[in-house]
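Reference record
================
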Amino acid sequence: MDRLYTAFVSSTFLDLRRERQIVANALLNQNCLPLGMEFFPSTGADQWQLIEESLNASDFAVFILAGRYGSIVPDREISWTHREYREAVARNKRIVVLMHHDITLLPVGQSEISESMRSKLSDFRREIEAAHVVRYWSNDTELVAGLYASVNTLSAGGHINGWIRASPDTVVLKESDFDRAYELVESESLYAKARLNSNLLDMTYKIRRRVRGEALEGVSKVVHDFTRETDALSFDENSKPDVKLNAATRTGGAFGHTRLADPRKTQGAAYVQDILFDPPVAQGEVADFTLSAFVPTYKFAYREDLLAATVGAHLGPRIFDYNARSISFPTRLLVMRVFLPASLGAVFIGPKVGRAGTVDATESAHVITSGQYREWTGEVDGALGRYAEIRVISPRLFRRYRVCWSLPSRRVV
């Protein structure tokens, strides 16, 4: 079945007009529809709204970078391209970066002249390199090869959803349209005041997954990540999760094994680590594994800090936080459980269900009225508190399920 994708394409304008067209043509050859190009250069608020709409509609974003930082957004200190990049990150978009490998080789007309603009470009490149896998290019062949490699990785790993062409007959997605299905996705998150900073929360985490192979070529890995909604809290060497693979079985018995790969992203708003299957989980075979982790300084403990960190988010500032799970593959059972000690002063406010950037009030209410959400009093390591749990049989594809809680104010009344 042909699956089509949408890609938001961003670059500086005059110096990369030809390269952007090459990328657009290459995307079309990969069944990807490029978006956003007609809005460059961007010069007004109405055009920024169009850019936001294009980003929201896209499956992933492509950023082409060379020797120019680009025009500065009025009343801001960053360029349009830089602003678009940060907006894509804020919207949790998968990002493809195609960066010129040596800008000192570029003609003067394709480079920044002023020292301040060169400094901004250098900072921008470092920001991206710290957060993403970057494909470097110096000619058209390398540019297209880097794009193809990135798109193939995203689609093969199930990281982008795409859409199906309309036809006279109704198209229904089946499990066979995916390379895997999950018989179980279960997680438990236990929060406590952070050991290193009482304004933050540590999380002790456990997840179990049972994945069944659906593709002839099998499933070679499962991606596991921890994602923050804001760069105000970033993963680094001092705050990265300590993840352990506790148990793993496969229906193939002794044939094949499961292992935890080294982290491939440890900085910025996301931490990414792969669970590898050798050989791949074959069609019809089931792999069952359990991970545990300690995630230091993972969430904010107080409302004021979360408000300040999310003031520039595309959905606006928040006074509540959450744990979330997006359903990207057919899933038999989703279980999400969160524990908050009473000493934190946080209060559960129920589930929120929707797509990545939206909440469906009707669907969220149904989770409650159907008994798929519950709360109860419990105790963890001697600390009394409250549990909240979402337990959904056959959760809807491409929906995001969240267990939410409001944060206390730091101010003493």
The two ends are 60 Å apart (CA to CA). DSSP finds seven helices and 19 strands in the chain.
